[in-house]
Write a structure and sequence with these properties.
Length: about 230
């Protein structure tokens, strides 16, 4: 039990990648606190809201007294330049950037020795499909926030980000082009992200901070020109 007596906080832990991260910590003995906007057996609230974050942080500290690991995972909305309103864009940044910043600030006095923060970004922090501005800006923001915090929290907490590519959270089977478009030959699973989160939080990663790990089956490393490997521009 690598994480016995440790306290982990996971945002957006009700389903998908966050749920897998929470389960992986629990399986290694950690006490896990989840905040999610969905109803359930956790702290229910919207991470875009300042007072909600303050109430959540107070509850965690009242119950545990300290925090070892903060995993900023809640999903910001994706809307593009044509449809996204001013308010929706701000909301995406509140969920994806401001909440990770403010939760870190709230927990800062309570981080224990060896504390670690993992920000879940996306391979979209470095590349884009059309009409994805709110999400992509939030992911670029959290990726940059990571190295800023790593420097500010030097000696107090290590701060790293993970940029997933396509991670299937539905348990579906993918074959053919869906799978082999990734150089690794498959679509990713939530456990691919959860195991990296646990590694980065462990003592084995004690010399890693301010770093980004892209877990995308090699998708962002693939250079594509018209005509390559059957890829054609219509
Ligand atoms: P998901 O939709 O399955 O889960 C996201 C969770 O966040 C849900 O439980 C949801 O209720 C919660 N959430 C959303 N808005 C919230 C809010 N305002 N306040 C509190 N909770 C909120 O998504 P996922 O695929 O598991 O994604 C998890 C993280 O991984 C996200 O940050 C996402 O951007 C990132 N990511 C996922 C993929 C992928 O392919 N699945 C790829 C790249 C990055």
């Amino acid at each position: 039990m690598v994480f016995e007596n440790k306290v982990a906080v996971v945002t957006g832990g009700a389903q998908g990648i966050g749920k897998a991260i929470a389960a992986a910590f629990e399986a290694e003995g950690a006490t896990v606190y989840i905040i999610d906007i969905q109803e359930g057996n956790w702290f229910v609230g919207d991470v875009s809201d300042k007072e909600t974050l303050e109430r959540f942080a107070n509850e965690v500290i009242d119950k545990s007294g300290h925090v070892d690991y903060l995993i900023n995972n809640a999903l910001p909305m994706m809307k593009g330049i044509d449809e996204c309103s001013f308010e929706e864009f701000q909301y995406a940044l509140s969920v994806g950037v401001t909440a990770p910043f403010y939760l870190t600030k709230l927990f800062k006095p309570y981080f224990s020795d060896g504390a670690s923060i993992i920000n879940i970004a996306s391979s979209r922090d470095r590349m884009s499909q059309p009409q994805t501005e709110s999400y992509t800006a939030a992911k670029g923001g959290i990726a940059a926030l990571t190295h800023a915090l790593a420097v500010s929290l030097a000696g107090k907490a290590r701060v790293n980000s993970i940029s997933p590519g396509w991670i299937d959270t539905t348990g579906s089977e993918f074959s053919g082009p869906d799978a082999f478009q990734q150089p690794a030959g498959c679509v990713g699973k939530p456990s691919d992200i959860a195991s990296m989160v646990l590694f980065l939080c462990s003592d084995k990663a004690g010399f890693i901070t301010g770093e980004n790990i892209c877990i995308d089956g090699g998708m962002t490393k693939q250079m594509i020109y018209h005509g390559d490997h059957g890829w054609t521009l219509q």
